[in-house]
Amino acid sequence: MVTLADVRSAHALISKAVIRTPVLPLKFAERPATFVKCENLQRTGAFKLRGAMNRVARLPRSCKGVTASSSGNHAQAVAFAARMRGIKACIVMLDQSVPHKVEGTKGYGAEVILGGADSTLIRERAEREAAERGYVYIPPFNDPHVIAGQGTVGLEIVQDLPDVKAVVVQIGGGGLISGVAAAVKGLKPRCKVFGVEPEGAAAMLRSLEAGKLVTLDRVDTIADGLKPVAAGDLTFDHVKKFVDDVVLVSDAEIMAAAKHLLLREKLVVEPSGAASLAAIFAGKLKLPKGPVVAILSGGNADVRAILDWGGA
């Protein structure tokens, strides 16, 4: 299990490479004392850089390259971290990855392979590429160094808003919420940590309900960064230990939150990044009184798609 000491170690290691993103109060929210942690303003456009930098920085000097599997944000983060380290990167992405995330990954110098239609297929391809090339595979979430890196988001939240009463975190594979929860509970055991998944990609909640890891037959959500068909054993264990509740939100609720952030708060946030706030706006959580922080996990958004959204 990742500890608060692991998160602090990661923070010291990556602090010069990542941006300490702001915690901002929402200007237009019915609930008072609602704040957002703006990882949409992070380098590469998402929190993923934190875990990627912590993992890549700890590779041996003999490492000549890395591979990764990702729908987009982890892809860009690993590509950036590899470029900073001066090593090669081969990233396997979903066939349906958002085009600007593919181009962003290439822009950081990585080779991109479109390797399949779900997270299992692209992981298997990335692991094969690593074995054939003599590279190291960098997991998107199920790795203690990746989890500790993502946990620096939670460390900064508590440092910048010491009176925080709850933190709301979206869940894809569970790396972000695992690290954040480990950090927050280590610093403030009474602070609530809530997880949010799309209704069409509820791998973590289904696993919690079953008491074991569950692999979904299919996923269907507008939130492309929250689409793994399964969580990891490490992230599952962290969520069981540290997280107070996990709830689901619809695509319509996600897109309403993303549109609010864009038009009212003047923040560009992709659907995956808006899922946490969607749960607050939709009243899905039993929130305590006092400051609550929703993590805006990424800003690699198709703005036109948000503005044009008319789905139900």
What features would you describe in this structure?
The structure is a single chain. With 312 residues, this protein is α/β, with parallel strands linked by helices. The protein has two domains: 209 residues, Rossmann fold; 89 residues, Rossmann fold (3-Layer(aba) Sandwich), CATH 3.40.50.1100. A six-stranded mixed beta sheet has the order 1-2-10-7-8-9, with helices on both faces. Strand 4, helix 4 and strand 5 form a beta-alpha-beta unit. Helix 1 crosses helix 6, helix 3 runs parallel beside helix 4 and helix 6 packs across helix 7.
CATH architecture of the largest domain: 3-Layer(aba) Sandwich
Name the overall outline: globular
- How many structural units, i.e. domains? 2
Report the order of strands and helices. Answer: HEEHEHEHEHEHEHEHHEHHEH
Low-confidence stretches are: none
How would you classify the helix and strand content by structural class? Answer: alpha/beta
> What is the percent of helical residues?
40-55%
Main β-sheet description: 6 strands, mixed
Instruction: Return Rg in Å.
Output: 18 Å
Q: What is the level 1 CATH name of the largest domain?
A: Alpha Beta
Average pLDDT value? 96
